[in-house]
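Long-time lurker. I teach an intro course on protein structure, and each term I like to show students one example going from raw sequence to a predicted 3D structure in token notation. This year I'd like something fresh instead of my usual example. Would anyone be willing to generate the tokens for the chain below so I can use it in lecture? Attribution to the forum is fine with me.
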Amino acid sequence: MILRRLSLLLALALSVPLSAQAIDFSTAELQRAKALQQRLLTLDSHLDTPANFARDGFDIDNRHDHNALSQVDYPRMVDGALDGGFWAIYTGQGDRTAATHLRDRDAGLQRLLEIRTMVAANADCFELALTPADARRIKADGKRVVFISMENASPLVADPSLLRFYHQAGLRMLSTVHFANNEFADSATNPQGPEWNGLSAAGKALVLDAVKQGIVIDQSHASDAVFDQLIAMMPVPFVLSHSASKAIHDHPRNLDDTRLRQLAKAGGVIQVNAYGGYLVDPGKSPQRKAAEDALSKRLGGWEAMSIAQGAELQRGEDALDAKYPVRHATLDDFFAHMGHILEVVGPEHVGIGLDWDGGGGLTDLRDVSDLPKITAWLLRRGYDEKQIAGIWGGNLLRVMQQAQDHAER
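-- Reply from a regular --
Happy to contribute to a lecture. Here you go:
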């Protein structure tokens, strides 16, 4: 007993949850949570699943369990009572040459086409949404909601006027930057630090053009200086589609409490993510990183792998865990971030964007079928149905409606 108390005190002092204290939910709790989600409009603000649409062997209508490349498909969305969300046009940051800008332009348009094609080919299960009212109607019709977002605006560098075409084709959320600086903005994680001290002149123009068209601005991945400029210049609220708390884990991708309060004061929303490296320090050794790179290279590289190879990748990663252990984030870690953010800004400014198929997922939240665990935790904490409805999409749609109303005016 004494040793147990000492270990608890040590864990509290280090702000590290004990693995033995993993949250456990009863069958009744999970059933109640799922039933609630089935009544509510349940949306995730950051789905990287479109990266799988052209992948060999992927079928949105079939389950792809225990696969390192896939966490979202229609059967598991049904199991987890996920109604849909924002499906991302993601482009990795290239070397910023003119040739790369053209490749990024084409890659973005290709990903847009893949999203639209998936929706058209599965019209009985999915439907494109352009407004909050669309999302509610699609839910009522028993289909899954497909909003389109863009993660990293590099596809617009060669021709920023393409933003208008993207909007006409369904784009409703835009982030300026990803892991490294680009022509529009500084990244929170650029190895060489800031280039523009926030947004460039082109970035400010892009943001204002997006606002005129009613596109929601997403600050995730951008630097704190970009956040500060958005607070100063935006006539409508903005969001962070997949971020976490810097007070819980001091990572440059996370937001500090002062900025969280500024976001809430401006009417914005932070969507809490489940990307392990933003929740905890995994303690990954150089040997582990080299082994991961070698495994990916042997299987042909992440982008070129088939779904079948994704299952092999999962088995390989499990083997690496035994050989080169790392700390994997858990629901305890996720709830530490979410609970802190809820305390700082309240449930009206919090949402969920778990970064599925883009690195998100936890040891006990493997894919979208596990989502009722989050709702069960919210119910256990005493949040009511209206507050949970806000967290599961209502808050985000409120920001979206404000952006569209402003554009109409």
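Some talking points for your students: Strands lie at 43-47, 84-90, 126-128, 144-151, 171-175, 216-218, 239-243, 269-272, 350-352. Residues 67 and 312 are 8 Å apart (CA to CA).
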